């Protein structure tokens, strides 16, 4: 019984720990004063200003586009690779299995530098300017591995058995994947979607190196605007993002509920 | 084999593109625009109202990107894949950029407002023939102190407040230093009585040692938010650029009866850095006409004056002085007297020795 | 559609993408390692240089590596100590509460991590809540720019990366196994250790890896919460690229970090014995 109490306390502590900065951030977005150690009154002015701050809105827009597209591509490629590695076992796939971890362990900076250098090299042959496209490509490049590994961890022997059984039942291999594999990995798939999106959206260093003028992403913009600390305007964006993501994830979960019930 | 092909191709591409930019410059007229403006600048260095004015007057958008050090700007420009149209680096970095062929020569026919510029700030050593630059602002680097927090009316005007343990402890100074190798080692060198452009390795080593000894007392290295830290009470003094402090003081004016007796910006007697920033057009620019028009716009007397009052740095535009608040012009900390200026040095490009400063700075930082 | 063809269609597009946009760029890092920084910061490739190597030896990187490894270790340790019990606790909850809890810890990650880190800055500053709390036990006036703040900031960001994999593998353990474990071992702790913990090991390994690795190469958090006072591997490398324009050295250090991490992962997998895939 002591154990349960300890576990419960730990649970509550973790939740408080996680949400403390969030509440602070949301609270400050309503603070009239720019400075975080004085509360001078409740105001919506930062939210109003936000909608007039072209720079932040552009950055937010860019971040969203990059995150959505790179997540989509990463899931497409990553899921495919995970299945491929699960179903095919030869020397080549063993090599890929090992190599797939590299984008996960590679430091942001290394990745950023090599992408920049790569694009510089390409610019000798093609008209390349750093922008949204280069950012999307860079984010996808590192995200694929996360998706592959995450989904891969769910592709257990159990699934193999299920698939064997299913391939007797279904003539078509597509069908096997659709009816058996997909539902089986759905939690991992959803987790990958969220993870990819977050990783892309929050990516600072890589974006810093590979975005160009006009295609700055939100984290890069915030990082470079740290001159006056974080103006409440940035807190406003973050608070709005929180609400947005709450809606998004709730929606995704509800949808997956429906699928499960089916 | 392949490598030389690549190099040949690259050279061919570069020479082709240079050709077309000459044509482009030739086809611009005063006030013409050929696309949106990509501005690469220090944060909070241009009054956003002026950018809006430019956008509405000329019907183009302005995209601002920011860097926090000259070296960062140089890295981006060197990569050649960025289409920035206007960059505003500092003196010593400009000479490096010129040497690397990263800047376009300006067409001064498109810049009639250039006559507004103070001649003292043209033809400086980083651009001796003044082909590439239009001076923007100049300033000093000093040490800002919150006298109120220290509970004193004044403090000695010396870098000893940073480097002398006794002095630090007497006043209870908590401070940040700029995150910049040349500035920080420069301050140490000046305190030791040397030039901040010395190439004498033993002198640099002495400065590094001094810095290492000071490490424990340094709260942080910071170039961007020392103002915030002063306000929140985290520190009571900071190494920083003149205009940043004054912007801070103006903001705090309402909270203090006389903000100038509560805060002071010191230019230590041992000397320090004076710097000039200038507008340049990088060679990767794709909106050359717009860039020139922007430069001309910023040199307009009233525009420059509004900017000067906004960012509290010293303008290099003599025509603008007519429109700047008298009090500001008289403020010796923003517009130091010739005497004080004579004691200051520009940071110079020291060729290979640049690297030594960087490395020593790293060394000092990793010593704890 | 043959089985083979389908498999290829599944896997090859991704593999090709990675070859072009990851593998090829990584070759450039090798190229830069053998270049040399010119006077103005460009990199010259006219012959094979070993400057980066000699510079690395000249530089005293040992304290930098030390700091990063120690920090990463503490971050991982704290995440594990706090995260495993969390995952274990929610496993026992009802399905709704289970997923709701996961939902709760994941949501903050859809907000800008920079502004969350800044909130931490506020919390550990002179008048911040955390500082006030800690100063009840220790005499400190401010926790900002201390190693403690950096560790705290990283734990905050990486905790879900520890919790989620552990939870996933705990979920995979069937309750029947746990039941039989209770029968087998009289001592509940033994039951836990020999059955539950061992079976959750893949998740633990994944969690440790996903926490230790980014902590080792971290740049932003040490920069913001550390005040640029100390050199970690992350900001040392970034500064070589951005500030010092010394790409050969930056590339060399990046490669070394990378190799170290790959080595660490291999070691972990050998120790675990199983594979995730």
Description:
The complex is a heterotrimer of chains A (262), B (368) and C (277). Chain A has 262 residues and is mostly helical. Helices cover 78% and strands 0% of the residues of chain A. Chain A has 2 domains: 1-43; 54-261, MetI-like fold (Orthogonal Bundle), CATH 1.10.3720.10. Chain A is globular. Chain B is an alpha/beta fold and 368 residues long. Chain B has 2 domains: 2-132 and 276-330, Periplasmic binding protein-like II (D-Maltodextrin-Binding Protein, domain 2, 3-Layer(aba) Sandwich); 139-272 and 343-365, D-Maltodextrin-Binding Protein, domain 2, CATH 3.40.190.10. Chain B has helices at 2-27, 48-58, 70-79, 91-99, 147-150, 160-163, 165-171, 181-192, 201-214, 226-231, 242-252, 259-262, 288-299, 301-311, 326-330, 338-342, 353-365; strands at residues 37-42, 62-67, 86-87, 134-146, 175-177, 218-221, 237-241, 263-266, 273-279, 314-315, 345-346. In chain B, strands 4, 5, 6, 7, 8, 9, 10 and 11 form an 8-stranded mixed sheet that branches. In chain B, strands 2-1-3 form a 3-stranded parallel sheet. In chain B, helix 2 (48-58) links the parallel strand 1 and strand 2. In chain B, helix 8 crosses helix 9, helix 8 (181-192) packs across helix 17 and helix 9 (201-214) packs parallel to helix 17. The longest helix of chain B has 26 residues, at 2-27. Chain B is globular and about 65 Å long. Chain C is mainly α. Chain C has helices spanning 3-33, 51-58, 62-91, 95-106, 113-124, 129-134, 147-172, 175-184, 188-217, 220-226, 233-242, 247-272, and strands at 36-37, 43-44. In chain C, strands 1-2 form a two-stranded antiparallel sheet. The two termini of chain C are 25 Å apart. The model of chain C has no long low-confidence stretch (mean pLDDT 82). Chains in contact: A-B, A-C, B-C.
List the helices and strands and how they pair.
The complex is a heterotrimer of chains A (262), B (368) and C (277).
Chain A: H1 2-28, H2 45-52, H3 54-87, H4 91-99, H5 102-105, H6 108-122, H7 132-152, H8 157-169, H9 173-202, H10 205-210, H11 218-224, H12 232-261
Helix pairs in contact in A: 1-12, 2-12, 3-7, 3-9, 3-11, 7-9, 8-9, 9-12
Chain B: H1 2-27, E1 37-42, H2 48-58, E2 62-67, H3 70-79, E3 86-87, H4 91-99, E4 134-146, H5 147-150, H6 160-163, H7 165-171, E5 175-177, H8 181-192, H9 201-214, E6 218-221, H10 226-231, E7 237-241, H11 242-252, H12 259-262, E8 263-266, E9 273-279, H13 288-299, H14 301-311, E10 314-315, H15 326-330, H16 338-342, E11 345-346, H17 353-365
Helix pairs in contact in B: 8-9, 8-17, 9-17
Chain C: H1 3-33, E1 36-37, E2 43-44, H2 51-58, H3 62-91, H4 95-106, H5 113-124, H6 129-134, H7 147-172, H8 175-184, H9 188-217, H10 220-226, H11 233-242, H12 247-272
Antiparallel strand pairs in C: 1-2
Helix pairs in contact in C: 1-12, 2-12, 3-7, 3-9, 5-10, 7-9, 7-10, 8-9, 9-12, 11-12
């Amino acid at each position: 019984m002591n154990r349960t109490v300890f576990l419960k306390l730990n649970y509550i502590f973790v939740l408080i720990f996680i949400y403390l900065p969030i509440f602070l951030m949301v609270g400050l977005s309503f603070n009239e004063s720019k400075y975080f150690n004085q509360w001078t009154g409740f105001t919506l002015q930062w939210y109003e200003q936000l909608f007039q701050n072209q720079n932040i809105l552009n950055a937010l827009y860019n971040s969203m586009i990059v995150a959505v597209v790179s997540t989509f591509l990463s899931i497409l490629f990553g899921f495919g690779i995970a299945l491929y590695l699960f179903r095919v076992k030869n020397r080549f796939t063993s090599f890929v299995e090992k190599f797939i971890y590299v984008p996960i362990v590679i430091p942001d900076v290394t990745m950023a530098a090599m992408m920049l250098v790569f694009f510089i090299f390409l610019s000798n042959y093609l008209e390349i300017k750093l922008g949204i496209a280069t950012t999307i490509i860079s984010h996808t490049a590192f995200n694929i591995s996360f998706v592959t590994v995450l989904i891969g961890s769910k592709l257990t022997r159990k699934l193999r058995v299920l698939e064997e059984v299913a391939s007797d039942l279904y003539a078509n291999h597509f069908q096997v994947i659709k009816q058996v594999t997909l539902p089986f990995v759905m939690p991992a798939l959803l987790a990958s979607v969220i993870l990819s999106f977050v990783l892309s959206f929050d990516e600072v260093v890589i974006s810093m190196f590979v975005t160009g003028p006009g295609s700055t992403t939100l984290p890069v913009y915030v990082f470079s605007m740290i001159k006056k600390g974080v103006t409440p305007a940035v807190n406003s964006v973050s608070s709005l993002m929180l609400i947005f993501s709450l809606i998004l994830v709730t929606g995704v979960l509800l949808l997956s509920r429906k699928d499960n019930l089916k | 084999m392949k490598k030389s092909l690549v190099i040949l191709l690259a050279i061919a591409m570069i020479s082709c593109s240079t050709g077309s930019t000459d044509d482009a410059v030739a086809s611009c007229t005063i006030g013409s625009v050929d696309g949106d403006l990509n501005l690469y600048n220090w944060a909070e260095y241009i009054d956003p109202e002026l950018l809006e004015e430019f956008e509405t007057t000329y019907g183009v958008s302005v995209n601002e990107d920011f860097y926090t050090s000259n070296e960062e700007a140089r890295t981006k420009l060197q990569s050649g894949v960025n289409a920035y149209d206007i960059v505003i680096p500092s003196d010593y970095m400009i000479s490096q950029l010129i040497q690397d062929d990263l800047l376009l020569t300006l067409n001064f026919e498109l810049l009639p407002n250039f006559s507004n510029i103070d001649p003292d700030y043209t033809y400086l050593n980083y651009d001796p023939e003044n082909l590439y630059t239009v001076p923007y602002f100049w300033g000093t680097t000093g040490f800002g102190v919150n006298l109120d927090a220290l509970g004193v009316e004044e403090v000695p005007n010396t870098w000893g407040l940073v480097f002398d343990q006794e002095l630090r402890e007497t006043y209870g100074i908590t401070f940040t230093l700029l995150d910049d190798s040349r500035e920080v080692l420069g301050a140490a060198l000046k305190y030791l009585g040397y030039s901040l452009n010395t190439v004498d390795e033993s002198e640099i080593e002495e400065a590094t040692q001094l810095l290492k000894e000071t490490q424990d007392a340094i709260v942080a290295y910071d170039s961007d938010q020392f103002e915030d830290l002063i306000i929140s009470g985290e520190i009571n003094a900071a190494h920083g650029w003149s205009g940043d402090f004054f912007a801070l003081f103006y903001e705090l004016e309402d909270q203090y009866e006389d903000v100038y007796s509560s805060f002071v910006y010191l230019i230590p007697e041992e000397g320090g850095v004076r710097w000039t920033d200038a507008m340049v057009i990088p060679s990767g620019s794709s909106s050359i006409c717009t860039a020139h028009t922007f430069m001309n716009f910023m040199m307009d007397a009233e525009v420059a004056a509004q900017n000067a009052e906004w960012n509290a740095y010293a303008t290099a535009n003599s025509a603008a002085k007519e429109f700047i608040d008298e009090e500001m012009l008289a403020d010796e900390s923003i517009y130091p007297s010739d005497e004080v200026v004579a004691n200051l040095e520009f940071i110079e490009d020291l060729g290979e020795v640049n690297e030594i400063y960087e490395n020593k700075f790293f060394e000092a930082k990793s010593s704890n | 559609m043959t089985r083979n063809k389908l498999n290829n269609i599944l896997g090859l597009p991704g593999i090709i993408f990675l070859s072009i946009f990851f593998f090829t760029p990584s070759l450039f890092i090798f190229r830069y390692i053998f270049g040399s920084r010119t006077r103005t910061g460009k990199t010259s490739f006219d012959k094979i240089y070993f400057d980066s190597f000699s510079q690395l030896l000249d530089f005293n990187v040992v304290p930098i590596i030390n700091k990063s490894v120690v920090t990463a270790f503490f971050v991982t340790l704290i995440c594990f100590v706090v995260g495993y019990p969390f995952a274990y606790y929610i496993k026992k909850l009802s399905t709704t509460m289970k997923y709701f809890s996961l939902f709760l810890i994941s949501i903050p990650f859809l907000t800008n991590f920079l502004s969350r880190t800044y909130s931490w800055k506020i919390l550990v500053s002179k008048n911040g809540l955390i500082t006030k709390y800690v100063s009840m036990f220790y005499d400190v006036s401010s926790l900002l720019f201390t190693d403690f703040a950096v560790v705290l900031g990283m734990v905050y960001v990486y905790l879900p990366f520890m919790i989620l994999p552990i939870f996933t593998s705990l979920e995979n353990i069937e309750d029947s196994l746990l039941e039989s474990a209770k029968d087998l071992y009289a001592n509940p702790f033994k039951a836990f250790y020999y059955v539950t913990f061992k079976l959750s090991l893949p998740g633990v390994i994944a969690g440790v890896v996903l926490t230790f690795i980014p902590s080792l190469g971290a740049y932003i958090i040490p920069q913001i919460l550390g005040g640029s006072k100390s050199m970690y591997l992350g900001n040392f490398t970034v500064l070589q690229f951005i500030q010092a324009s010394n790409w050969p050295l930056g590339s060399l250090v990046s490669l070394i970090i990378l190799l170290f991490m790959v080595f660490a992962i291999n070691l972990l997998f050998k120790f675990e014995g199983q594979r995730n895939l």
